[in-house]
Amino acid sequence: MSKIKKLASKKNETKPLSRPSAVGRKRDDSLDSAIIEAALNALAEVGFDRMTMDLVAAKAKTGKASMYRRWSSKTELVRDALVFMNRHSVELTELPDTGSIRNDLLALVKPKSAEQSERKMRVLAGLGSFFAEYRKISEDISTHIFGGWEKANAQLLTRAIERGEISKSADVEGTCQVISAMTAYTTTLLLKTFDKTTYANLLDNILLPALRSGTKPSGTKKA
Amino acid sequence: MSKIKKLASKKNETKPLSRPSAVGRKRDDSLDSAIIEAALNALAEVGFDRMTMDLVAAKAKTGKASMYRRWSSKTELVRDALVFMNRHSVELTELPDTGSIRNDLLALVKPKSAEQSERKMRVLAGLGSFFAEYRKISEDISTHIFGGWEKANAQLLTRAIERGEISKSADVEGTCQVISAMTAYTTTLLLKTFDKTTYANLLDNILLPALRSGTKPSGTKKA
Amino acid sequence: MSKIKKLASKKNETKPLSRPSAVGRKRDDSLDSAIIEAALNALAEVGFDRMTMDLVAAKAKTGKASMYRRWSSKTELVRDALVFMNRHSVELTELPDTGSIRNDLLALVKPKSAEQSERKMRVLAGLGSFFAEYRKISEDISTHIFGGWEKANAQLLTRAIERGEISKSADVEGTCQVISAMTAYTTTLLLKTFDKTTYANLLDNILLPALRSGTKPSGTKKA
Amino acid sequence: MSKIKKLASKKNETKPLSRPSAVGRKRDDSLDSAIIEAALNALAEVGFDRMTMDLVAAKAKTGKASMYRRWSSKTELVRDALVFMNRHSVELTELPDTGSIRNDLLALVKPKSAEQSERKMRVLAGLGSFFAEYRKISEDISTHIFGGWEKANAQLLTRAIERGEISKSADVEGTCQVISAMTAYTTTLLLKTFDKTTYANLLDNILLPALRSGTKPSGTKKA
DNA sequence: CGATAAACGAGACGGTACGTCGCGTCTTCTG
DNA sequence: CAGAAGACGCGACGTACCGTCTCGTTTATCG
Predict the structure, then answer these.
(1) Whole-number Å distance, CA C17 to C1' F27?
(2) What are C190-210's pLDDT values in tens digits?
(3) B206-222: per-residue pLDDT in tens?
(4) Of B85, B103, B128, which residue is a domain's last?
(5) pTM above 0.85, yes or no
(6) For testing contact with chain B, the best of A105, A143, A168, A222 (most B CBs within 10 A)
(7) C32 and C97 housed in the same domain
(8) Which of C120, A166, B28 is nearest to D186 (CA)?
């Protein structure tokens, strides 16, 4: 079903099953990417639910039949569009090598272009907050659900700083956000439960070591 | 529009704007929570898209009119239901105080009851993967988008371990997941761009200190 | 259920069953007629279907409960309102007696007042064409259904005049309308089938005698 | 909006305004009549108000969208269905010609088939008494409104017979019904006022000539 | 004169049908 | 045959009305 292989790798896999019969008009390959581009733009502009198949067809100047000839459902199209959008994140062959792990990690996220990166962010937002109009849900989740938890955690951390258990220069706010982020990520994307063991691992292996460490190597400040 | 304030705090009932007129039948407050409970159960059981308003009405033994009298749309109802579900996360007055920051943080996530916690997870999952059927999107996002990035990052970290820049006992996999989690969280929930400054802060304040720290305090193993 | 007896005849029927208990506030009799007036006005203004019970309640400055205390349904209210509207048509005791049957019949329809008569017409129209906005249905029925029939009948009558079977001065158009009217009246109001026997009676007893009669007594012209 | 022209006459398809664009799937003309047939059956079986659009869609094995693509509302559909039902009443080209006006008029109402005629009656009844349950309204109208009037008119006519002004064999009951029928027909279907002039014309041209005529030509009896 | 009981106005409630919109399929014409 | 256009079957949405109910208030009779 996925069209991405064809798009990503320009090889022609010779189509063993349900190959296009030799006669008749050939598939217009440029339509594949036109539809995906239209879908990504629609996702970024109006979000998943307001992205209707008719809208995408109109943006791609095609008809729905040509879309469903390529993808069996809206979901499949979105999946492929997302994979396509991130097709350049995966070049394991040409990893940066600056000699510093910090610079290596940062180099990896250098986007192709500013506007590409901008759209990428909006696409993810349009996905996560199902509806463009309804991204209030996101705000409410972050404010009411994770916001409350982060405030409580921050208070616990501040107290720990006061009694000298963790470093004075610990990044309290950042740590709390990591906790929220891992919870949301695990439940909504990995579709696993964020249980106590997972949480303890996060604390023991990453957060507590960082909190105890008294040094901030590069001295950057928060934005 | 939000009914949660009334549900959460049974107090400030002065109602300056659009207060219920003194005459006429009073709103049945028990219906508010009955509908929200029904909505949460529906979310947990069938996910956002399969949760129809008629289904929720049937579960709450009411009619759609009474639901739309309270919330102007399905989305508004879901927002309030989510806030309601987490109304107890915010009790800043009774924070745990075990003397250890690790135990404090863990104590905070002790749920009221096992089944409450179970449903909470399912509700979040039902939200994130909008449709039961469509959780493939989630899988693809984690596999293709973040999966590729995590693999690359893991390779960079392994190399750094080899050249002695970070600790041999560093939690490579966990660190990579935190990076993915923070990206997803920032874009889909906080609705902000995950830019280079934000990333650098995460690295400098939390991840790099943890990676350099050679100790794993509590000795817990990964799940 | 019917309130009309009480309104029409001011006698107090001593209420054998479900009589109003001696204690408690008394029914406001002026409300009965206020509601009926409001209902008639609503019927005349917007027709049966757009006459909502809330609208009538608002017009009568009362609540729906007070209406349903008197009539068990919208239909019952409308029935009584119609009867009330025509309560003066039935005074068999004081029939006109002018010595001429023509003047007697005409005298009977002298309305109480012009505006009363006007509203009466509009009420009937609002009933027959269920919706005010939708009285197009009526137009279509009269145009397409009865219109076609009337045209055909008119042609038959004209031919009969030509061959001298009926009077030259026969009222062709009027006769055709009577046929349509009797069909509609029998089926929609009397709820009987307008079968061949009924039709033959109408022809033999009324229409054919009139058509053969060569005289137009009073010489009035059509409007 | 009306689809009947297309159904009735298979000709003039030039379609100057809002013609179906040359491209795209064509409207399925058989659906037009399938829906109309379903609507007529529903009207005959359950009456106007119990005829829901979902019911008609189910009977026609289609969806509501396809119905609303053709007619903008339930009312429009009913209008066209009624016109369609009577599309054969208008064959002016093949009028009967028996040599007797009586037989001509009767021959015109010979239905295409018995069951067609049967349904036609039930459709009209389902219309006039808007709801199956609400045909009480019809009964009340005929009983209280026209019934009272007819009784009074009958008394006037009887008196006129007694003093010899009209024929002894005059059809008193039939004449009174014609008066009621013309009133109802004029107001509810023609949507005109039944004023004194109209009434006088009816009397002078049809009813009084018939009443004065002393002969009952064909000797048929009342049903 | 206060208690009791019912009517009243307002409006919430459960239910049902409406008319709209989107998905994924099918059909028609054009290249 | 593929492409563009758009009709089709289905199902959920959000609205409106019916007839019932529950409030708090007003009006009447009874103890």
Answers:
(1) 24
(2) 878 788 899 999 999 999 999
(3) 999 999 986 544 444 44
(4) B128
(5) no
(6) A105
(7) yes
(8) C120
